[in-house]
# Entry
Amino acid sequence: MTTETQNYDALVGRQYRHGFVTDIESDTLPPGLDEDVVRFISRKKKEPEFLTEWRLRALRHWLTMREPSWAHVRIKPIDYQAISYYSAPKSKADAPKSLAEVDPKLLATYDKLGVPLHERARLAGVAVDAVFDSVSVATTFKQRLADAGVIFGSFSEAVQNHPELIEQYLGTVVPHTDNFFAALNSAVFTDGSFVYVPQGVRCPMELSTYFRINAANTGQFERTLIIAEAGSHVSYLEGCTAPMRDENQLHAAVVELVALDDAQIKYSTVQNWYPGDENGVGGIYNFVTKRGECRGRNSKISWTQVETGSAITWKYPSCVLRGDNSVGEFYSVATATNYQQADTGTKMIHIGANTKSTIVSKGISAGHGQNAYRGLVKILPSAHGARNFTQCDSLLLGGDCGAHTFPYVEVKNPDATIEHEASTSKISDDQLFYCLQRGISQEDAVNMIVSGFCKTVFKELPMEFAVEAQALLAVTLEGAVG
Amino acid sequence: MAASQDSLVDRLRAEFAAVADQLPNTTVRDSRSAAVERLAAAGLPTNRDENWRYANLRALSRSRFAPIATHQPIAAPDLPAALDGFERYVFVDGQFAAGLSATPSGNVGPGIAANSPTDMDTPAAREARFALISDAFAVDGLCVHITAADSAATGASIRRIEVLFVATADATIGSSYPRLSVRLEANTRVHLIERHVSVGAAASMVNSVIDVSLDRDARLDHVRLQQLGARTTLVDTLDARLASNTHYQLHCIAYGAAAARSTLRVALQGDRSRVELTSGCLASGTQTLDTYAVVDHAAPGATTRELFRGIASGRSRIAFNGKMVVRQNARDADSVQMLKGLLAGSEAEIDIRPQLEIYTDAVKAAHGATTGKLDDAMLFYLLSRGIERDIAQSLLKWAFIEDALLGIRPEALRRQLERELSRQFQDIAALDGLLGDVK
# Structure
């Protein structure tokens, strides 16, 4: 054990690869939050009256709420009045019409991150709606999508161009009163993505958004809304990296998915925000509310996530299975290294008859990382014949980390069948020995074993994303093994 | 919710003030009043607390906290049949009833004392809030402190003790506070049966506190039977601390009470200590049976085996929240949790939470949980062999719950229990026949 530790000590000290700050002036609001700030954001984004009022209702409700404390994480108190709630790149006034008009510095940033924005985007068949500090600056492949009738763009655009859809669907899955962070997001969200897939349309390409957090001290509050009309199909990819910084940044996003009859939504996330340094200083607070509602019969929502970043992650992508025969899936790999803390999992609420859900969660803890799976499976009396299968496995690398499992199983219908399995273990010495004696280095061996451990989740990701996720996992665990 | 909790605490304070004058001396008064204040600071649990989500605590608002001063006289035939070879200690509404007890010599057996709870060993800083109420109000309790010499005095290698807690009075008269403290010194062995029963049909409030401490190499076989009356409410707190190489076998079977909540904490403080926790719950009507069991692995090589079986019929609710904590120094911990719930009523509910909290990598921890109705294939198998549906269903339920009963000793007790439980199922005749074969 000692020699192995020495070998990897050098790697442990490695710096975050994606840590850099792009030097672009920002149009930033002074810190603080009150009704004027909310009105400022709403005015700045030229929002209709109903949205301003909705934001204000959310703020008033948020002021009555207390920060939740049930998660298995230790958080330094957050001063919500010390956060600046609006920041937009200065070029916003004359927004770029095409990639050529986009600030080259910005493009260089994406290049460093390896975001396949132009050539690679085309090759991969990916349309990228890049969010840079809360305002979309470039959207590609719009025409092809428009031809299919798919609306894909920033949330602000959708508010301007399709206010009726926003008014009809916003807050119907995650109401503004839902929880502390969702209420905060509802009040101050600046931008995000909007997808509308019309009836019977199969979206011609994978939709992808890369988020970045850039200006210091700015919480980022995205709002994503995806609506899949009857018989439609859409796959949405979300990937995140962030520059290196010493202060904790708050990120409280809300994602709402609506699937109508026979519709399918696949939502994949690779999250690689700055996790803090090896002493646990800095890093992103990632408090996200993600929820999808299978409103129609035979609809399906599938969440796949690879969580390697953030100092503290607090997120439970959930499915409300309202339509009969609807299906919810959750596949997750979450890693916690150094002093990272992750409390993540899912909720499957079965309301309709013959609804099915599958949960596969793989947690990897290393260093002083604390990884918790928290999942609720709730079967309501109306959910005849409902089925759930849950598997949550934890892998511990090292003696100082923690792996926790907090499942909730609540069943109110005797026809339901619920199965839950979980295991917690370290990397098997036998497997490691087998690899080593065949001349595979310790690090490669561990990577292989960890990849194998996560395979059931990776195979759910779109191919190019799976490759990225696997590479990311290897980078994340560098030096964490000893 | 918060307001009503505040008013409960205020009422508790007032009731304590009313009985405080009768306490023997200022030391006792101070320690009890400290318990009240600690409770007031912590507040009573509500369903908003993560670990109390499923409990039914509604009866608290109409219960009196003060202990029951006088109780109806009861006769030995009202009580369950005595078991051969077991000393019997009976408490009625929390007070020792020497006349109903059967002990080897005189009042109590060697190493056993019926005491004021202030003399009992209690963990210094209690987290369990209902135990604080008992700390403040309990009037009597049983201390079992077995030394190697005591074991020798009784001439048997295993000491067999049955403690029977009887509830008779209505909650509006006062609460009953059963207290039991068990301390086994090194190399001793005890077989303990702890029973909670009701005599009469009163809607009693029972708040029991059990404290177990095992010194190295000790072994305790502990069977807990909750057979309270259909209108009774039980809150129960068990704290156990295990030293090196100890073995604690804990069997909890619950099918009584309108609402029962058990909070069990087992701390595996010594290396190679082992706990086997088996819990079986049967609920029907509108019963709520909630168990919260924490096993804390705090030393190397500790082992836990946890098994739960619950059958909820009618509109009842069964909850089992099992938490395994493995601390950083608890290397080579080995824990297995198998929790199964069976829903036998269209409006019944089962809530299961098998939790793991693990802080070291040298650990084997697994859990499995399932909830569902009776297996269609098994039912079909029995039906295809000409067994009637009701009987087939009863047989399958019986097989399901039997996992939780198998390890119960002595045999006589298990048979007593099986007979009682068989009444819970629809077709008694079929099962009586089956039990007849077992005999």
